[in-house]
Amino acid sequence: MISDSIPAPHVPERKAKPGLQFVISVTAAIVGALAPGLIGDATPEARLGGMVAASVLPLVVTWAGPWQPLRVGLGVALAVGAMVLTYVGGTAVDRDAFPVPEPVAETAPEPTPTVAPVPPNESDKGSIRVSPNQVDCSDGSCEEVTVTNVGPERLSVAAEVEDDAHGEFSTDGGCDQPLEPGADCAIAVTFASSETDGQRREATLRIGHDGSGLPKAVRLSAVAPAASDVGVRAATGAQCTYTDAGELVVPFALSATGDDPGTVTVIGRIGDFATGPKQVSVADEEVATLTFPEASASGAVFIPGATSVATIALDPAVDEPDNDVLELVIPVPDVPQTFECLPA
Q1: Which of 132, 225, 290, 298 is the most exposed place for a label (fewest CB within 10 A)?
Q2: How large is the angle between the packed helices 18-38 and 68-88, nearest 10 degrees?
Q3: Residuewise pLDDT in 10s, the chain (344 residues)
Q4: If DSSP codes are grouped into helix, strand and coil, which group holds residue 16?
Q5: Are 323 and 299 contained in the same domain?
Q6: Torsion of CA 195, 196, 201, 203, to 10 degrees
Q7: Same domain, 305 and 259
Q8: Do 216 and 248 have their domain in common?
Q9: What is the CATH number of the domain that holds 273?
């Protein structure tokens, strides 16, 4: 008997193609092995995550079962994610496009050093202060120097002049009474020179005390007087006068360079007759006069209506004789009046 059952045809079992699985598995293994080592500044957590993902990927992809295409896509995404995670070190941005600056460690502010109080200096104990620290006596007088006791002790103060090559500066020697703390006194300085060279002088006023502080120095300066040079000249714009009393009044002026000599002696002469001597104060542009009588015991001094020559001289003559004598041409009028008299 022939059985009518027909054996089912043999259907070979469908197997997954290993090509794509193999490529993804190899890629994931390479990424997991190499990527963490190539990136030197990734965080430990990122390195661990990349290695774990790369190790798990081959299992996920090669695991047999349904939805293989979906799992293959998921495997690719996880491989790429593992690479990115390992490279950026756990950040969500591309470091090449947006560089992240290295964190700067905060430096704590330096503590303010505590300065210990400085103990009192023994060299400042009982010190003094002086004012001014330089004195100029060129105008003939010297400013007083004020000394103040700025220390805690009572002090006796003394002063002396040093470095005075000509011996022309002097001082009263210091304070008359000891100075209490905070008190002051004035020290007088004088300058007197017998020389007339007009040169500058300098010296030092040294002020000391009986405390432990250092002495103070005040610079002194002055200019020695210059030699006087007095000249006699015609008085600009002044006129001679023939008076009703029969006298002839002749004007003149004195000029001086150097220090003011005070007064000088002037003598006038017409012919053999001399008038004077007369003491005249020396001041530039100051007009002085000499008076001649019309007649003297020896005869006529000048003659009205005639021209005379009057000589006015300094007596004794000083320094430069060329300007110590003035000669005036005097055309005396016939009647008393004022008239012009000119240098000869």
Answers
A1: 298
A2: 10
A3: 444 555 555 545 555 455 565 566 666 556 555 555 555 555 666 666 666 666 666 555 555 556 666 666 666 666 666 666 555 554 444 444 445 556 666 666 665 544 344 344 333 445 899 999 999 988 778 999 999 999 888 999 999 999 988 889 999 988 999 999 999 999 999 998 888 777 899 999 999 988 877 889 999 999 887 766 777 888 888 889 999 988 889 888 887 776 666 778 888 888 888 887 888 877 655 688 888 888 776 678 888 888 888 888 887 655 445 567 888 888 989 999 998 888 87
A4: coil
A5: yes
A6: 20
A7: yes
A8: no
A9: 2.60.40
With respect to residue 30, please indicate whether it lies within any of the assigned structural domains: yes
Residue 316 falls inside a structural domain:
yes
| φ, ψ at 238 (rounded to 5°) | -80, 150
* Phi, psi for 331 (deg, rounded to 5): -80, 90
Domain of residue 298, residue span: 229-343
**Of 231, 223, 245, nearest to 312 (Cα)?**
231
Tell me if 64 is assigned to some domain.
yes
User: For residue 243, what are its two tokens?
Assistant: 């008076």
298 to each of 267, 271, 272, 293, how far by Cα in Å? 18, 12, 9, 12
What 8-state DSSP symbol labels residue 108?
Answer: P
The terminus-to-terminus CA distance of the chain in angstroms comes to: 194
Using alpha carbons only, give the angle 266, 268, 270 rounded to the nearest 5 degrees.
Answer: 170
Residues 324, 281 within the same domain:
yes
Q: What letter does residue 231 receive in the DSSP assignment?
A: E
Say which CATH number the domain at 148 has.
2.60.40.10
**Contact (CB, 8 A) for 284 and 258:** no
Domain ends where: 173, 205, 223? 223
Cα radius of gyration (the chain):
60
The residue among 88, 103, 136 that closes a domain is 88
Helices vs. strands in the chain: H and E counts, helices first: 3, 21
From CA 51, how far away is CA 35, in angstroms rounded? Answer: 8
Residue written as tokens 């992240």?
A: 100
The total domain count for the chain is 3
